[in-house]
Known about the structure:
10% strand
Amino acid sequence: MSTxxxxxxxxxxxxxxxxxxxxxxxxxAPAPSGDLHVGNVRTALFSWALARRHGGTFLLRVEDTDRSxxxxxxxxxxxxxxxxxxxxxxxxPGVGGPxxxxxxxxxxxxxxxxxxKLRASGAAYSCYCTPSELAERREQARAANRPPGYDGRCRxxxxxxRAAFEAEGRTSVLRFWMPDGTTTWxxxxxxxxxxxxxxxxxxxxxxxxGHPLYLLAAAVDDVAMGLTHIVRGEDLVTAxxxxxxxxxxxxxxxxxxxxxxxxxxIIGADNQPLSKRNGEVSIAWYRRAGFLSxxxxxxxxxxxxxxxxxxxxxxxxxxxxxFDVSRVSKNPARFDLKKLDAVNGDWIRSLSESELAERxxxxxxxxxxxVDADQLAAVVPLVQIRMNRLTEAAELLHFLFVDEAAFAxxxxxxxxxxxxxxxxxxxxxxxxxSAVQDWSAAALEPVIWGIGEDLGLNRKRTATPLxxxxxxxxxxxxxxxxxxxxxxERTLTRIARAIGTAG
RNA sequence: GUCCCCAUCGUCUAGCGGUCCAGGACAUCGCCCUUUCAAGGCGACGGCACGGGUUCGAAUCCCGUUGGGGGCACCA
Length: 503
């Protein structure tokens, strides 16, 4: 008699999709609780591309309702990463918009209103189960091979029972009563999906402190902000029947429900979700590691999507003109650092020398190498075809810009490159180089090869001692260009030093 | 365990019933070029998970098996 009736069974069918045109509204909704991950940014990229492709609106909403996990640093870092990736938003933090604010922590009244409405209508109930009780029952269920989800214990508490719990000092969460029935929707990437609510347990929509939880906040905002297409990870497919149930309980007309597109997850080499254990996940890491945002974006776009045919090297223009969410793959994509390196290398090679110089400058500065603009311009052609990541420029050019006092020949290089016969090459070079008038690569080359000819050495045996003497390594940028850049004085100084250890 | 989803070279993928004894890229391995390393060129290796159907015809459609991923939180 005092038990709540509970919601009537439903058969939700959400098959119609809003048109893909300039009325489209998509969003990226990160929780700023750490660095943005590879998966987050790919989701952002696809969602952005979907809106941009059709001339729609892309918005950024920050899901920072869990105060214990989010931080301003992470928030700022997220905006920074999106900016670096050239993912811009029409509405959201920094730019505002008709549905401001766009940080959920500033929208709490909306969620409180929705929660109150759900409680009043009986769609949600107070649940007094404690976290430890829930965990215990979950374990029991698991052990008995039953589904571990919430068992509905507090669904029909009487007023007396509630009073007793409260007298006990228990707090409660607001839990949504999932109606019996099924939900079917037409997923933009996966097609029609039907889920039986028997597999969708009741779920908490507020914490015991009254704070809204993700399912509630996202459901409220997605409709309130007029979103038409939700692009998110596959981990959220079972959130869909819950959110549609929430829309219904909140009285949102079905014409306003967004369509959903669930992207396949990005996994590591071990088939497990990409994580710190099986790869790097932080976009900030890739940025620091010397990847171009163009290269990373290109690679990420390839993870689960393809423009078709043999096209693999492409930039934003192609995404803007051809991105098609229905072409997104349904199975998980393995993240492959080697391929990223290759794509990034292609991008580095596609840059003009001046563009590359601009990208390299900060990398060299970070490595403590002092280089002026002229030196940098001279050096770019030497490294452009030799690197896949910007940071490799610092290694390649170290010998050129390091303080003379700090220059040293690597031990392995000295052993291999300054062995038998190298002394003769170096002494001859010392002598003939002193007489060279025109200190240019073109003029230096015949002088050095002449030494080899006179000594009866092939080019490799001629060049190697000099390479090691001048660069300290067995591998380096081309020898004569390096000599030119190094200059006569430093070249002769290093040769003289190497003669001391040469065989 | 259960529900949902998925299944083409080692990896990312093209393919949407005949044009595929399956194409590209990365990786690997050769060769060429070459002062090292690269880049570049050429080539090799390598796959439709398995079993049933449907069809004149299947990588493409259906069913099953196997395998993989995801969900079942007071995280999002």
